[in-house]
Every structure is written in structure tokens, then in C-alpha cells.
Amino acid sequence: MIELHLPWLELAIALPALGALLLIGLRDPELAQRRTLLFSGLALACSVGAWLDFGSLHTFEAHDRWSLCSQCFGSEFFVIDELSAPLLPMAALISFVTTLATLRTKVRRYPFAGSLVSETILLATLSCRNPWGIVALLAVGVLPPLWELRSRGKPMRVFAIHMSLFVVMLTVGWWLVEQTPAGAAPSNLALGLLIGAVLLRSGIVPLHCWITDLFEHASFGTALLFVTPMVGVYAAVRLLLPIAPEWALRSIALISLFTAVYAAGMALVQKDGRRFFCYLFLSHSSLVLVGLEIATPIGLTGALCLWISVGLALTGFGLTLRSVEARTGRVSLTEFHGLYEHTPALAAFFLITGLASIGFPGTIGFVGAELLLEGAVDVYPWVGLLVVLASALNGIAVLQAYFRIFTGKRYFPTISLQSRLPERIAVLALAALILGGGVFPQPGLSSRYHAASKLIEARLQHIGQATALETHGEPAWPAWFNENDKTAAEREAVDPALEIDAQSEPQPAGATPLQGGPSAARTTRRLPNT
Amino acid sequence: MNYDQLFHILGIIVVACPTLLLAVLGVSSLVGRPLTERLMSQLTQSAVVTGLLASIGILAMMLMTDRRLIEVGMGNWLVLKEQHFHFTFKFVFDRLSVPFVILSFTLCGVTGAFASKYLHRETGYGRFFVLYAMFLLGMVVTSLAGTIETLFAGWELVGLSSALLVGFFHERAAPVRNGLRVWTVYRVADAAFLVATLALHHLTGGGDFVGLMGHGAWPEGQAALTSNQALFVGLLLLVAAAGKSALVPFSGWLPRAMEGPTPSSAIFYGALSVHLGAFLLLRVSPLLEASTLLCVAVVALGLVSALFAAMAARVQTDVKSALAFASLTQVSIIFVEIGCGLRYIALIHIIGHACLRTLQLLRAPTLLHDYHDLENAIGGRLPQNATMWQRLVSEPLRRRAFRLAFERGFFDTLLADYLVRPFVKTFQWCDGMERRWTNLLAGRSARDADPLQAAGGVVDDLQ
Fold it and tell me: What is the ipTM of this complex?
């Protein structure tokens, strides 16, 4: 395997851990915040370094140079590949801006050491491709929020029950998969347990109540760090996607689709800001899962794009809501708050991030949403339209929340509510990424498409290409919808531009779905020659 | 420099002017360094005048060179070669888009100049011009779009700016409630538009209008779809158009939209935005030719909406609402014209009506003052003579018609009772069940947020 130029990955993982150790026994919360920012910032720099270094190598995967882990364990434990390369800086950025946007009023309550431990585990999880390593890290990852709930004296039963179930299902499920003889398909029990674990960690209905409970009782920052990187989706990609048969993926996609609509509807009727955010996030993370489980090049690319856009956009959205909470206390959506005049920057950012999450044109979410929709409708022509419904409902929910929080009455504060410099830096950095990614989406799209291609190749190699081709089948459009005998011929005849395009891109004989065969023809804007 | 290069440069200027305006005004607001009123006004005027001159230049050159279709490609915004996935930004200048973009620049320029005085020292002056720039960009992109995705992007920008401008006076609850109402209707319309876009991709292999209607310049062109396909896609686009143009049953948002400042009402709901539905149907008019049923549906919807709007306009108690419904009447008639295949008449009707209605709406505030002066001078109300309808129609029938018109056809009530309320009740029930489940797991009340909840539902705005 090709090596990076420096041990970026291990540095990115070790620095927050070192920072957490240095915070032990520290009483001064402001000093703790500064140290957390330092180590989190260094971890962010290392993860960006790993991403850039990896990009310069033009390879699918790479590992650290002078890797300590490989010397100790004899195998490459931390690896960066096309899937994880942008996820690592995204996760590090989420951690960094969450710490940066923590106001002085909240520093006494925010667990900085816990956030650094969470960051370490998160970066390690996203760098790990060893299945047992992922299982172990996902299991350990539930401990920091649990510890916080316990130390704050908050009820933890709902979270603990769900997470215990998650760990047990994940561990037993993967153990059963490991027991499967080589060449045979995993048993239904093993798959069922793995699917259950992924759905639970991703908060798919009806296994989602732990997320609302976590947002209710944990600090907003901790809850954000635990859910917005979407490690449940990561588990689905690494553990489930390569081995799951088509029926399993389709089941997950349909359940996720239902969750997307259900959560969007629930977001509309929520009366508390945090619960509203929770359902909005659930709706979007379910859409990411929908795209992943469609497992077509377009759908998967859309899901991977959406993963990053939702991660960034909803982190920003959550941070804005958290900033509002820091000024006014828990935000009730039953009344208007009229904060616009006092916090115009936060209002603008709330709107930008909310719109980015629903895939508004010009924002980073647009491309992912468009590709995902196209992929979903190609595989499930009618059911896939639920993506449109979920998106419409989410759009209404976002603007409703904006109006409720920032408009509707004149607010007379006794103190200045202007956003502070660290908050402004945090939100502007995210806004730049959201708008920049929306205006120049091609680099991100190409990178995600390569990652999707590799994932599908790995899947085809594992479960057999023939099986994959058989199970895709034709989409269930009505007969009249596909009656294009006359029109196709006419298009061939009247459209020289397309003809030239067709000549320049001939299709190889016996092309696979990935390379432009029948499946790709359905999933793309087809030219006549396809 | 040959004509093609000149067309290309002018085309880019037309699109770049509103884009730069939005970028400058938006970024300065976002970083907390708002520009002065004077500078904002000057920038707006410069951008509008430059864009207008460039579009007039294109028109003049098209007339000189006798070219009816100019395509200005901005290259592929997104490409996945292996998947034949292209997202192309392409703008077309033809007999439909050029008049529409000139109209947009002209009316936006007039309204911008009016607003710079009308909103002088208003706290939301900067916000108004940011949204105004967004609207202008949306209109220009929509007018010139050469692919359905580009049109959709412009369409969304127009929708967002409209909803936010309805809620412009946001220190009161009513305008923002109405803004949310407008946004909700737009989202429904946008969803229909999005599905139509997907269907077009599936059927024609791309979102390019050339793929849909051939290389013929507007209004020529032949739909590359069968009758059933044209009906399916056309009905979806008709829903999108009806939502944007406030046709029945979406008419409820139009009078509510008048809560916004007068300049925005004039430009959006009197002049430009309300005609976007008709513009969309004109752009895809070859689809109408491919399906007689679709034409019938367009004509029927137009007639019903015209009848309803004509009645509703007569019972409004404020001038802006009356003008809104009068505007809707004309837009509905334009739909009928489009359904009947009278495309040039529809285009001329749009231009004439938009100019007239802008003038009326901008004049409305001072007109009220004039009426008050007249009434003060004569010492009473102005005399009102009985109309022809009052003489011809019986009293009970008139009363019923009045009730129907006053309640705006009960469309809002019907939508609230049969769509929004069941939806809300269902999800509130689900919320209650979730609460019981988490309480059971927690062994206690699991929601800290409960004490926050006051009486009244969040979705009251939508009801």
C-alpha cells in the first residue's frame, strides 16, 4: 500500500487524545477551552494534511509513514481512502467549530475533555477499515455521551438501552458474519443483526428515540458531535454494503425513505428547538442512507455528496441554534422571538445552513440532493418520489423555524446579543464551505464518484456481478411512460450535437452497469447511444 | 471580434450583473459590514442598467443579423462522463426570453429606484436590496434558462426572495405568517416541478430544452414526447405554474403576499413573479401541442381562476388585494390564451399587463391619499353607481356570490380542513406515542422541554 508523506492519521488521532490527558485535573474552564481549541485545531490541520497528501498521491488508499500502529500490531490499522479522505477533515472541523462556538456562559458546563476523547474516537473510526476495529471503536464511541449524562445527573436509561442493544447487535452480527464459510452468503440472522445495529445507530424509525432523548438531556455540543458525523452510515458502508444482498439493501432503503418523510413531518409539529433540529437531522441522515442502499453509481455518489453537505450544513444549523440557546435559553417554537435585529449574522447563517441542508440551488447540498433523487427515482420510480416530499416538508420546517426564532415581534434585550468573534469565525468558515461547495461542486463530485465507483466495484467482486445485475431489474414505470419508439428515433435524427457526443463516447461491448450498461442508462441523463 | 463572440460577451454580462450585485450585497451583509444606502442604490442601478443595455444590445444584434436563437453556453457545471451525467449552464436568447429579460430589468430598475426613496432610513433597507438582488438574479436566470435545471435554480431563487419579502416587516407576526404561507405553496409547486424535471430526464435523456423540443427557435419546435408522456409532464408543470401564478386552488397566498412592502408587491405579485407560471408554460409550449387534453386542462384552469379572481377582486377592502386579484384575472386569461395556442398574444399580454400593474401598485399608496383629499373636499364618501351586474343579478344570488368571493372561494379553509389539519393531527398523535414510549423506557417523564410548550400549535401559521 502506498504511504503518505507523514503520519498524518496517527497525529490527527493522537493529538486530541493528548489534549484530553492534559485537561485532567484542570479547573479553569477558559484555559480548558483554549487548550481544547489548540489540540482540536492541530487535529484539524493534520486531517486536512492527510487529505491533501492523499490527493497528491492519486491512489485509492494509503497509510501513514512511520506508522506506530503497524509496528506494534503488524497490520495497517489506520488507512485513508477515497471514502474517508474528506470525511476526516469534516469530522475534525465539526469538533473544532463546536468548541470554538462555545460561549463563555457555557464553558463551565461543556465537557471539553469529553469532546477531545470523542474526537479521537471519531477520527479513529473514520480512519479504520478493519471490521473488528470499527466495531470496537463504534462501541467505545457511545461512552463519552453516556459519561456526560451520568456526570450531569440526567436520565440515561433510554440512551443506555438503545446503545447497549446497538453494541450487542453489532458485535454478535459481525461475529456471525465472520463465522460464515468462505464463499457462502452470511446468514439472515447475521445480516438482520447488522442491519438492526446500523438502523439503530442511524436513528431510523422506530429505533430513533435515543436521539431525541440525547438532545434533550446532554449538552447541545456533545449531542452534535455524536450524531452529525453520521458514523452509523459509515458502519453501513464498511460493514454492510460489501456483503449485503440486494433485498437487505432495498429493505434498508425503504425503511430509511419512510423515516425521511416521517421525521420531516415530525419536524413540522415540534414545539422545542432541539427536538425540531433532531427530526430535521434524522430526515436528512435517512436520505443519506437511502442513497447508500440504492447502490447505483448515481445514487451512491449522491449519498456520499449529501453525507458531507448534511454534515456541514446541519452542524452549522445546530451551532446557530446553540448560539441562540446560549442567549435566550431553550428555544420554544410555539412563539415568535424576534431576534433578527440583534443577531442578524446568526439569522443569515441559520437560513443559509438550513437551505443548504434541503439542497437549495447554489449551496453545497444541491448536487447531492439532485443526484440522490435521480438515483432513488430510477430504482424506485414511485416510492422514490417520497424524497421530493421529504425535501418539501423539510424546506417548510426550516423556514418556519427561521420565522419563529428570528422574526414575528420586536425583542427588547437587556444585554447585547450580538454574535461574538469566535462564533462569527466558526459560522463564516462553515458558510464559506457551504456556498463555495455550491458554486464549485465539480471537485467534490468527482472525488465522491470515484469513491462510489470503488465501493460498487468492491461490492460486485464480493457478491458476484451476475447477482447484482439480476436483482436490479427494470424500474416499474407504467408502459406508456416508456413508449419512446418514435421520439428516440427523432432525437437521433434531429440532434447532431448529441450524435457527436455519442460518437465521442462509444460504449464498450459488454459494459458493466458501472461503465454505462443498462443500469447506468437508467440512472443517468441518457444520450441516444446508451 | 465576430458576432458570435459579441453575443457571448453580452450574454455573460446579462447574467453576471445580477450575480455580482447579489454577491456584493450578500457578502457585505454576511460579514457584518453593510454598505450605505447610497452605495447600495448606486450599485443596484448600475447592475440593472448594464444588464438592460446588454440585453437590448443582444436584441438589436439579433434583429440586425436576423438570428432568432442565440445559445450562450457557460460550460458544464457538473460532469460525470462515465455516467453521461451533465449539468450544463446554458442560456438561450430567443423571442421569448429576450422580451422577458428586458421586461425584468426594466421593471426591476423602476422598482429599485422607487424603493430607494420609499424605504429610505427603513431598518430593513439593506435586507430589502439583498432580497431584491436575489429576485433579479432568479428572474434573469429563469428567463434565459436553456436547460430545465437552470430554470429550476432561478425559479427557486425567485420563490425564496418572494417569501422573505412578504415577511419583510418582520417585527409583526402577520407578515411572517403570510411569508410562510407563500413559501409552503411554493414548495408544493417546486416539488411538482422537480418531479417533472426527473420525468423529462428519463424521457428525453437530459434537461436541455433542445432535447425536449428540438432545435427550432421559439415558438417553433416539436415535443419529443408521446401524447401520454406530454400529458404527464405537462400536468406536473401545470401544478408548478399554478402554484407560482396563484391559480386555483393556490390563490390564497396572493392577497397575503401583499403584506410585503409596496415595491416588492408591485414587482413580484403584480408584474413579474406572478407571470412566471405563464412563462414556464410558454417555454414548454410544444408539450401543449402534443396533448390536446393538456391544452384543455390549461384552458379550464385558466377560466376557473379568471372567474374566481374577477369575483374576488370586486369585494376586496384594500387596494393592494383588489389589485392582486385583478392581476390574477389577467394572468388566468393569459393561461387561457396559452392553452388555445395563442403564444405571441400571451407574450404581449404578459408584457403589457406587467407594466400596467407595476404602475398601479406603485401608485396605490398616493392614490389613497388623493381619494382621501377628494372625500375631504366633498365632505363625504365618493358616490358609487350601481353596476350592470347589480341590475341584472338577483339579490340572493349576489349575496351568495359575495360570500364566496369574500371567503376567497373557501380554498384556504378547504386546504386547512382536509389537508393541513389531518396531517398535523397525525404527526401530533405520533409525537404523543413517542412520548409514551420514551417515558416507558426512562421510567419517568423523559422530556425536559415539555414545560416550554404553551397553548397553540406551531403549524397554526399553515392553517
Answer: 0.91
